[in-house]
């Protein structure tokens, strides 16, 4: 840690205080963070498992930090100097996790349990921090850092906000009883999610009467937006989450759209034969990360199989990792892969990998039309989710966890398990820092068929 040259890190132990910063006064950075080591096992985790060890130490209360985002930004800004943090010893200790990860390959037999491990935690738990549309993906904000500016918390780097600084927004009760963080009476997260859904809708150029396939239903927000904004359009949407299927079906029925939207509990590799070439449009929002490295070509071959050969258009949104870091990422089991944004068997692809597997899987029949990156908007999306998560934790999320997992979340050890769960979700700060620094991306790929003249070319959509 003596190699830190950007930012200032203060480490407090039971016997000492250590400070790490650039010694040159002209190079001072606004990034500051303080670590308080509660249990010396923290050092064992850090030395043997690197960043994964740090994150797990935080989850289990071995170390405290009031501003995780700034801490992770310091690590990212000093990544090259701290590269030896993941040492040979760390490699040996995480090798068993690498080897056992092969048990979770997203074969047809494993995929449902892998998806269930992430999404079937509890519908009530997710409603505790998502906006009312229940979109669980990156939104597009009118003002990327508006939450900072409106509360006087803007920093010199886009998207940085620590846990100390997220308590200032107004709080109002939603119709479902959950607390929503708002600015000037507006739920900007809801507006951002609707803006993103509209963007996907417009990129796909969905027209009345189109038949749309959605791979990855979520809780139905994209399918419902399509049906509500395109008369006579029908949507077949597939998911492997039983709880998502149940709630999405309920919401669709309540909206009076059950005659135009069908929610199928189905693996994308098990589509019925009559779906071949049946769809004018294919949409998939942040689902491809669950496919796994070994099955990306198969995914694109299925998209090609289902999309009409004449005039078909597709839009896929994917969380990505930069090419320069991808090969090392493939060999690692880091905190994102194990605990945060992915389920067992999943992977964050590099953009070039998506292009390569699309070409191979489709036999060159899918042609990329446009690519955009909304990754920096994910930093604010995560902040908005975290505000709601903390505001609703005791009244909504804890009861949901106790209801779903009574044997684990109640009794003598229940409260400690709940605290581990809370800390795990707060580690989304790791991802916020990643999206802020473009260490992570969120790309929207639009593709079509050769000869698709009617799609047009609106470069501003």
UniProtKB/TrEMBL annotation:
Q: Which InterPro entries match?
A: CFA/CMAS, CMAS, SAM-dependent_MTases_sf
Keyword line: Lipid metabolism, Methyltransferase, S-adenosyl-L-methionine, Transferase
An example Gene Ontology biological process: methylation
One Gene Ontology molecular-function label: methyltransferase activity
Q: Pfam families from the entry?
A: CMAS
**Recorded family membership:** Belongs to the CFA/CMAS family.
Alphabetized PANTHER family for the sequence: CYCLOPROPANE-FATTY-ACYL-PHOSPHOLIPID SYNTHASE, FATTY ACID C-METHYL TRANSFERASE
Q: What is this protein called?
A: CFS1-like protein
Phylogenetic lineage: Eukaryota, Fungi, Dikarya, Basidiomycota, Agaricomycotina
